[in-house]
Amino acid sequence: MHAISQSQISNSRREVAELKEHYERLQKQFDSLSAELDLSLTAKQVMDLHIKRLKEYNELRDAGLRLAQLVADEKRCRMKDVFEEMGYSMKDD
Amino acid sequence: MDDTTMVDSSPAGVAEKPYKNKAGDRAACASTSRRSGPRKTVQKRDVSVEDRKLATQTRLLFNELSRQKASYKKHIDQLKQAIKILESFETEERILDLISKWRGVSQAGMSYMLNSTLLKIDKMGGYEELLRRECEAEKRKIEYQFSDNLQEDMEAVFESEDFQALSEEMQQEYREQMMEQVKEAQIRKEKEFAEIELKMKQSAGQEMSMQELSKRMKLEYSMIFPD
């Protein structure tokens, strides 16, 4: 195990101080944006919620397309017609 | 390297603290009687212990600083991503709209499929009839698997040269073992049949529901029809 020099310690202290400053700056920015949008979530909660929504969208889209295909097969028509009948667009513009 | 080695090998030094270790004292005394500078040797050992303490403390400090760096980096990364999400909040609202759209498509699709399935079940003779047919098919499958596997296994064993080469007694023993296996398989089969029958009885008087259809179609009901 090699010894840790004092210069390594000083460098680490400096890096921690820089990271802390960066973190505080970002936290302020995040707080300000949250206040604008009237949100009271942590950064992690914002991320988790975003991922959960994307997952939900993907799963519902897969289910919807699969069901629309089944309906089209039953009706012997095109999927596009099924969507039109339902009042939705096939594409997510 | 132990302390004694260090004392023996230490070239010079003045001892400032007395040793608590008796063995160490003895080593130091022995060293005194042999050499001209015993106190210097003791100090060298003190310095080494102090050095090691200092090195340990430095390492602990370094590890703590590294931990703090990793923690800040992780939180900075989370904040950057969260800020990006909040800055384009209209994207988030768009995702919510799309979730709503595809939920609507899925619900409409499920409704159509349920109606269509109910019509087919009606033509077939009702939900109970559908279940009865499914149970029969399941039983046939189990029956086929059991008889087929066992029959093949037994025939293969009895016709093998190894089996023929066995004594009458041994052949009889094997036959009994195989019969035991057949019995066990029969019990398993009856158990599975009983489970199917129970399922059938529990479904009596019921109708095909949206939940049941979702399950059969391997779709998550609660996702399409949330509370």
Short description:
By secondary structure, chain A is mainly alpha-helical.
Structure notes:
The complex is a heterodimer of chains A (93) and B (227). Chain A is built from three helices and no strands. Chain A has 93 residues and is mostly helical. Chain A folds into two domains: 1-39; 41-93. In chain A, α2 crosses α3 (79-86). Chain B has 227 residues and is mostly helical. Chain B folds into two domains: 51-123; 125-227. Chain B is built from nine helices and no strands. Chain B has helices spanning 3-9, 22-34, 38-87, 89-124, 127-159, 161-164, 168-202, 210-216, 221-224. Chain B is flat, with a radius of gyration of 41 Å. Residues 1-37 of chain B have low confidence and may be disordered. Chains A and B meet through α1 and α2 of A and α3 and α4 of B.
Can you give the mean pLDDT of chain B?
Answer: 80
Biggest interface and residues each: A-B, 47 and 44 residues
Distance separating the two termini of chain A:
59 Å
Whole-number count of domains of chain A: 2
Distance between the termini of chain B: 70 Å
Summing up helix and strand content along with how strands pair, one would put the structural category of chain B as mainly alpha
Q: In percent terms, what proportion of residues of chain A is strand?
A: under 5%
What is the overall shape of chain B?
Answer: flat
Instruction: Encode the helix/strand succession of chain B as letters.
Output: HHHHHHHHH
Number of helices of chain A: 3
DSSP helix fraction of chain B: over 70%
- Strand content range of chain B: under 5%
Biggest sheet layout of chain A: none
Please mark out the parts of chain A with pLDDT under 50 across 5 or more consecutive residues, or reply none.
none
